């Protein structure tokens, strides 16, 4: 892992190719249910994301977000939580320049759906819902300081964010 990180930091122009390769591998491993390899790929992506804070990270971020979306679309709760945790790490990174074209509509919808999980196992249901709340928090954190991403406050997003939070607050009150 250290060699990959060193290579990416030394040759940031290769970062988009590294991201594309890892995205291809992750997609294949998710389809083949090889979740151990998926975890390794996401760990590599997380480390690359944390190590490479430069202009060349923009193409890599697109691959990264595509892979996170792949995990969130999975029916496997562990992969959904893994994708959420990676997105939250990404959301905590301050970017030098804003992204004009990056949209978070999919993530708002997916994290909101996770907040309303009806998984039969109560512990798994709680894990998915907590991950959904953390994901929504990450989306808000990533977009709130960016004038170009003011869309988070539009009714279409607020109509997903607010009910998801209230639903989980109500569920918590029902258990008390």
From TrEMBL:
Signal peptide: none annotated. InterPro entries: ARM-type_fold, EFR3-like_ARM, EFR3_Homologs. SUPFAM superfamilies: ARM repeat. One of its GO terms (biological process) is protein localization to plasma membrane. Pfam families: EFR3_ARM. One of its GO terms (cellular component) is plasma membrane. Belongs to the EFR3 family. This is Protein EFR3 A-like. It comes from Scleropages formosus (Asian bonytongue).
